[in-house]
Amino acid sequence: MRLKLRFLILFLLSLTLVFQGGCMRHIESRRSRADVIVYGGTCGGVIAAAQAARMGKSVILIEQGRHLGGLTSGGLGATDIGNKGAIGGMSRGFYHLIYRHYLREDSWEYERRDDYELGKKWDSEETWWKFEPHVAESLFEGIAASARVPVYYGERLDLKKGVEKSGSRIFSIRSESGRTYYGRMFIDASYEGDLMAKAGVSYTVGRESNSEYGETLNGVQTKNAVYHQFEKPVDPYIEPGEPSSGLLPCIHGGSPGEEGQGDHRVQAYNFRMCLSDAPENRVPFPKPKGYDALRYELLLRYLEAGWGKVFGNNQMMPNRKTDMNNHGAFSTDNIGANYEYAEADYKKRKKIIEDHVRYQQGLMWTLANNPRVPAELQEEVNRWGLASDEFVDNGNWPHQIYVREARRMVSDYVMSEHNCRGERTVPDSVGLAAYTMDSHNTQRYVDENGYARNEGDVQVGGFEPYPISYRSIVPRESECSNLLVPVCLSASHIAFGSIRMEPVFMVLGQSASSAACMAIDEGISVQEVDYGKLRERLLKDGQILEWKGRQ
Prior knowledge:
By secondary structure, the chain is α+β, with helices and mostly antiparallel strands. A hairpin with a 5-residue loop joins strand 18 (443-446) and strand 19 (452-455). It has helices spanning 2-19, 43-54, 89-103, 133-146, 194-198, 210-213, 297-304, 346-369, 375-381, 417-420, 493-499, 502-522, 531-540, and strands spanning 31-39, 59-62, 151-152, 163-166, 169-174, 180-188, 203-204, 237-239, 242-247, 275-276, 282-283, 314-317, 321-324, 385-387, 408-409, 429-433, 437-439, 443-446, 452-455, 458-460, 466-469, 483-484.
């Protein structure tokens, strides 16, 4: 295993050292052909494209925006994984490249390496899991460029007539710009699953009921929603104590739903802000256009009630920067504002994203400036600001919203809570998941006592890494026979909450690409790929397919 990993690391290192900082941008042709077409420049998409090139196939990587790496380069520098020993292949190689980057003295500008909290605790496995956004993006660009993967930026699938099929096979896909991409195999590595959906593959959005797959943590969860919950009673009405005055924003007056019952609701999105406390690299929190003070009245009342753990999940990254995530009952999660995102067109998604930017910028501006914020907390907030050397083309704001969940494919095998708990296992592993079953809140309502209450946040762990089925990343053969879906894979809501971690998306992206290349070589559908042969290839490439304790 160590020899295989070392070979893989050297491969990735050669990719980045030679071409780091640039990638091939092909925009001249209206028609493009390749063996493998990867839609979505997420971390999983980049790795999938590089693996296809590594296996001798022509490949095209299509990215909707202007950046590679998705959330990994979009602010999530505090890698979520649970058990790092479960991560192998090119995914682990990526974190080795992070390690190599921070070994260099010239990587440290705003602090000395030994002053960083982890600077004296270098991973004995030569990997590092906390990093700055621009570092991750540079590495992904280097991987794509060095594998000579053509990257088409600013290309979005035409949602009305963007997929042409012949029988069960995708023949080509078309972007809004009119460019057409012809391929033999396709990989949807996007967070939204647009290619999958428009190809006629079955999927779902929202939460299943517990009864659908015999689970206990799916559907409406008021009893298990004990995390990121109001710790003190807070009045939800515009005029305190006056229901007739109406509810404050983002609170509904109806029932949260029957316990364990499925619904359309989607766990909350946010942005993983990269903050800095270095005065020379700190930008004050901006007051957004369209700021609505009423959106933060509930927060101010909560602070006045004595809660103040605003920075409870502000994890330090190198160079005096952080990855700030949601923490507490009222935080960066814009609860209830994303239900339409998965199925929306681009115009509607843009409005939803803009609302999330406005909400989160307004939250930080309120904390930094509103006189009702306790003085000690306000002083701490103003010690921080946006990092001026990150996201420089986007006002120092992350370019990637955290799409924790959108569409989820429904294939011949649906990963469920039973897999997470180890009650069921699969014989066709293409990688391991290792994180807690984790859903963020989905709604805010008024409880029986007349106070604001959140619903949906479930965090249940304590299990070992478990295998993810190959059948969960391929559609039903009758629906599409040359498509793989390593991100919006087939999983129940609560199981997806465990699987949906960026290192795992890279693992699944590599496995999906390997299967696609093997299907091309043998002239068969992705469903017909011999798992024994696929397993042999994955193990050769350093993937970890079963848990035997620490690897």
